[in-house]
Amino acid sequence: MRNITVLSGGVGGARFLEGLLHGIAAGTLPGIDPDAEVTVVANTADDLWAHGLKVCPDLDTVMYTLGGGIDLERGWGHADETWSVMEELRAYGVEPTWFNLGDRDVATHLVRTQMLDAGYPLSEVTHALCRRWLYPRYGAGVRLLPMTDDRVETHVAIADPDAPSGRRVVHFQEYWVRLRAAVPAELLVFVGLEDSTPAPGVVDAITGADLVILPPSNPVVSVGTILGVPGVRDAVSSTRARVVGISPIIGGHHVRGMAEQMLTSIGVEVSAAGVGLHYGARSSGGVLDGWLVDADDTEAVARLAEAGLPAIAVPLWMSDRDATAAMAAAAIGLVADGEPAP
Question: What angle do CA 40, 41, 42 make, to 5 degrees?
Fold first, then answer.
């Protein structure tokens, strides 16, 4: 297999990609060509405008992580960061004060915003930014694409007894960063998603792949929004590539982020089996040919098999690159022996 496409969110997807690329370089992934090319289709529904700048958290997390510039302790943002700009903005009382932009990170957002203002689409802007971060390490071997060039934003409805409707709607980033996902998400609103179109190269990367991977990213507001771009889910369902996914839920809880809150908001069981069944087997109209669950969720394997979704239980903690590469190898091995989808 030479062409791999990964539908990625931010931190979880980026860490998985590190392990995947490590495994390719080490030659430890079954059936994967040592010169395999990886295309990453990243979620952009978390994007927002802050202080006049276009911020793309998931694109940047993948770009910084694979480019060696991520803050390892926080898992997001630029390494060796300083915060003088935010200190000055707070001194002026300029909102949002709850969303931190580091000084080095601001440079990325300035370049992106200037290029967007000049008329370049987000896909071309992302390519230009990756000339600095990805090309020196991987050449043409790794490509990062936004899921769409269109503006799509996730908003979350939460309870507000002072509002006439009893609810108010906040941007996803406010729910995550300011509110820390500490209040129930009553409803999710994906503004612009239904009217969006896949960014150039996205559908071809899926239909032309040998393998498509859904990493342990949020199944609702990361992978879910990518699949929600009209045409993308159909591409995944119809591709001749094998499609394998990895559970972001271990032992009934998410490892990082807010998958539990998001799954609850759409009525999906918070479990490894629940997420696998939410994606569904391609043999019954879903998107998966195989599903990895953690060793603590072995009981889910039989339940998934009954629904026509092959699954195995292996350690899913991405503790280091070798462990993550082993996880990727298990995912590939689960589906590698099968025939391509018709």
Answer: 105
CA distance 5 to 206: 6
φ and ψ of 255, to 5 deg: -80, -40
Q: What is d(CA 92, CA 150) in angstroms, rounded to the nearest whole number?
A: 32
- The tokens for 266 are 């759409």
Give CA–CA dist 185/255, Å, rounded: 19
Q: What is the predicted pLDDT for the residue at 342? A: 38
What gap in Å lies between CA 209 and CA 321, rounded to an integer? 24
Alpha helices for 185-307 (secondary structure H): 202-207, 223-228, 232-238, 259-265, 272-279, 300-306
Provide the 10 A C-beta neighbour count for residue 31. Answer: 14
CB 37 within 8 A of CB 2: yes
DSSP state of 295: G
What pLDDT digit, counting tens, does each position of 192-205 carry? Answer: 999 999 999 999 99
- In the numeric block, the tokens 């694409």 are attached to 145
Residue closest to 114 by CA, chosen among 61, 45, 106, 90: 106
Cα distances from 342 to residues 6, 63, 205, 264, 290, in angstroms, run 21, 34, 18, 34, 16
Separation CA 131–CA 113 (nearest Å): 17
What confidence score (pLDDT) does residue 339 get? 44
The model's pLDDT over 92-109, given as tens digits with 9 standing for 90+, comes to 999 999 999 999 999 999
Cβ-Cβ contacts under 8 Å for 185 (sequence gap 6 or more): 156, 157, 158, 175, 258, 261, 262, 264, 265
Q: Whole-angstrom Cα distance, residue 279 to residue 245?
A: 9
- Per-residue CA distances from 296 to 255, 299, 315 (Å): 13, 8, 8
